[in-house]
């Protein structure tokens, strides 16, 4: 395929040419304007170098529908979910009602996904159940996806008992929801278990959406060309948004972006003899691939860690992808792209902040499909970037970017794009911050579907050491005061019991970095004998702190959750454990408790574990102790609850 790498052999002059010059090398393409301006503002100019050679080849304005591509065959069907969605006309009064309507919700149980909550702010709430078996024809897949999907997905289906379905049971239910254009929140996506299965099915949905949208534009180009000028109603041709990018896929690491692009290629190519053209493929592999020899061979880490941190784990990137019939253009300028793949940090550095001169978010104005994958990892990176992105989605663009307004859909001109945007949110946990994004920013007119299964057994059942766990409930007036209440409760009630030298070897696990800084400052002020490790501690500092703690030279060790997430070191020498707050990931609870085994010298009888929680920690508490016990602990008159694990 290297023969097809049209844009990979770029000369040095092209690398260093100013952004605007590069994009304008092609024929004048109104949408090419995206190349100049803020895309070149990042420090790494090479990352922002965009492919200039293929501008006219991939322009939606100057191309027409090829007969052989199967045209709009599936689009002619009135049942096509894509057409039903984009052609649905909202009325002004429906939009006004959304602001005042309360959500209507309905619960359903599906065979694989379990408990689903359907909700909508628009008048009519429709729910549906999955059909027993689905025929690919009924899904309205655009060519060539019917044939390529079966091959691309075969690794997941072949292992299952003889079933004719091209989907796994999980994929089938997820795709039925995606294809109905509802918003979806699925909080059970794990890198170890089903991450790839889910990635395959959302990539199918993305390519299906983009092929249909582009086929509609190219088909209308052909129809307009064949019509005499002045004949026909221009409104017949309203088939696009204010800017070209239609899909935004947010992933945490370059490795994930690499896998998404590989799936796109596979879905467009299948096993056909005809290879598709992928421009800049060699460069993409160089920047997004990884060298297997870079990984230190002797590190033993849990399997879930290995599955998350695989390949190139750089978290600052963004790349535009244009698709035209059977060709893919990587590194397309944003305003000439159909699909954007980026990390939250990669988006944050281009969206910019208030008052910054060079900032751009017009490319988010017409996103019709937003996919946020592995949402839980952004809690460990910087959740603010996700909120910043959501606040800039589907705003009216500040510049026209050369759009032909006679082709723009009315709902896009009315600034109603957010009601047509489908958001798919995948993560590994039910978390209040992720829930909040789904509830606040997802207002799709088709409604929302959230998977809401409750954990029956908590992660405490995986604690293997004999240990008394004392859960102490602290009272908090409201959500805003919880942080201060927790600090005061810890300092006055908990720390006083541990100041005695007998209680040496005490590890304090702190999920929030802000809490960590506050505790560190307090310990310094009180001149307590302590050491600390956070995600910013240099390697030498980490080794020193671990050594002092193991030897008992330092009584306390403050440890942040992010450090544990990124490094997963076993801390030796723990005898007393304090969870300042319940962990974000439930399995971290058992993982940290099991660290006590690392150095047992016969003092097991004196080990302790103390956990602070409040009524606002219900989700995290249920994930650790199970939903029934959590309910009792939150309603009980007693503030202290004791669990004992590891009894023989």
From TrEMBL:
Classification via SUPFAM superfamilies: P-loop containing nucleoside triphosphate hydrolases (SSF52540)
UTP25 C-terminal domain boundaries: 459-643
Pfam families for this protein: Utp25_C (PF06862), UTP25_NTPase-like (PF22916)
Top-level division of the source organism's lineage: Eukaryota
GO molecular function: rRNA binding; U3 snoRNA binding
Broad class of where this protein is predominantly found: nucleus
Composition-biased stretches (Acidic residues): 1-17
Keywords: Developmental protein, Nucleus, Phosphoprotein
Gene Ontology biological process terms in this record: maturation of SSU-rRNA from tricistronic rRNA transcript (SSU-rRNA, 5.8S rRNA, LSU-rRNA)
Residue ranges of domain UTP25 NTP hydrolase-like in the record: 181-449
Subunit structure: Interacts with CAPN3; the interaction is required for CAPN3 translocation to the nucleolus.
Protein name (database record): U3 small nucleolar RNA-associated protein 25 homolog
Species annotation: Acinonyx jubatus (Cheetah)
Gene that produces this protein: UTP25
